[in-house]
């Protein structure tokens, strides 16, 4: 497994490279955002560990570029510890968000969890009515119309479709899609559902994503 660390602080970058190599991973280190983005686009890394405040190109812009051009797991590792920062990073498509100062043991556990995900096989194509979700090609259509989704929107829709007919709680959705436990007052799931509905349901007469008051959301026929 290969990991790219994009970190401008020399001490932190060297510490991460040494520790991850001792953990059995192949590690490359970029000390600027510009170098980090170039390296991330040139090589098929299994995981990117990304700081936010970087010289050249900041972590937010790198995250956007990666989600547009690469399907790679990303962990933000940053001193930006505000709730709005965490929500922003996850909405951009990061798989996890860890705040400095951090426990290296916790980081390793999160890395191992992320790299284990997606091993189980699933169908390459889900169909429900006029909606087709092609997992292999990451393509979604309704009534033959292709719908452009961000990485997190695609993962959210896939979770809803896989669990069609069941009610998924906000906690369950947050855990499965963002791989984190969210504070109870965090509305990131509701915001993501609203954006997904605008693309999947709003242009069409038949609505597929439904709210279940006080619990969460369900996909399919209205409960």
Total helix count?
A: 8
What structural class do you assign from the helix and strand content? alpha/beta
Instruction: Estimate the helix proportion, in percent.
Output: 40-55%
CATH class of the largest domain: Alpha Beta
What is the CATH superfamily classification of the largest domain? Response regulator
Describe this structure in words.
Helix 1 (10-22) links the parallel strand 1 (2-6) and strand 2 (26-30). The chain has 2 domains: 2-116, Response regulator (Rossmann fold), CATH 3.40.50.2300; 125-219, Arc Repressor Mutant, subunit A (Orthogonal Bundle). It has helices at residues 10-22, 33-42, 59-69, 83-91, 104-116, 151-162, 170-178, 188-200; strands spanning 2-6, 26-30, 47-50, 73-78, 96-99, 125-128, 131-134, 139-142, 145-147, 167-169, 209-212, 216-219. The radius of gyration is 18 Å and the shape is elongated. The mean pLDDT is 88. The relative contact order is 0.10. Helix 6 (151-162) packs across helix 7 and helix 6 (151-162) packs across helix 8. It has a 5-stranded parallel beta sheet, sandwiched between helices. Helix content is 40%, strand content 22%. It has 223 residues and is an alpha/beta fold. It contains 8 helices and 12 strands.
